[in-house]
Amino acid sequence: RDRGRERDRGRDRDRGGNRDKDGDYENHGGGTHTNAEHGCRAPLRTPNLKPLTWVLQNLYVRVIAKGKHYTQKGYVYDIVDRYHCTLRMDDQTMVEGITEDMLETIIPKQAGQDVMIVHGKYRGQIGRIHTRDAAKERCVLQIDTQVQSISFDNICAFVQR
């Protein structure tokens, strides 16, 4: 009896998926789909990319991926899809196919600069730096009529276009 169960479990593992509530196997990518135009079966391509979580349009960012644009700055010109954005670099060149892990936020050094909040309750809102505390890695921002203390991790320089 026990050997039979172990054999069944082993067979489940070999199929590469777990059964759902109906007893069918879940598909975790790598399957096939029918191309309606040609009627052939082609493998599914599941991206091995993380969706954009903090990248928003008009953020001023630094490229940290090794390559031609390493350490150069630019702003997010367009969000192409869930995974990619397009940058307009300071030298006016356009760079496409940028993923979030290739970028880092920039925190303005001077008070009075505009920033966008990229995480938390105020995500997407624009604020102005009132004071900046590099030791504590926090900024006091004026957001509309409110004043909030926000971590450097949650803000990024913003470019008005």
TrEMBL record:
Residues 1-27 have a biased composition (Basic and acidic residues). One of its GO terms (biological process) is mRNA splicing, via spliceosome. It holds the Pfam family GPKOW_C. One of its GO terms (cellular component) is spliceosomal complex. It comes from the Eukaryota. Coiled coil: none annotated. Residues 1-42 are annotated as: Disordered. PANTHER family: G PATCH AND KOW-CONTAINING, G-PATCH DOMAIN AND KOW MOTIFS-CONTAINING PROTEIN. This is KOW domain-containing protein. It comes from Eutreptiella gymnastica.
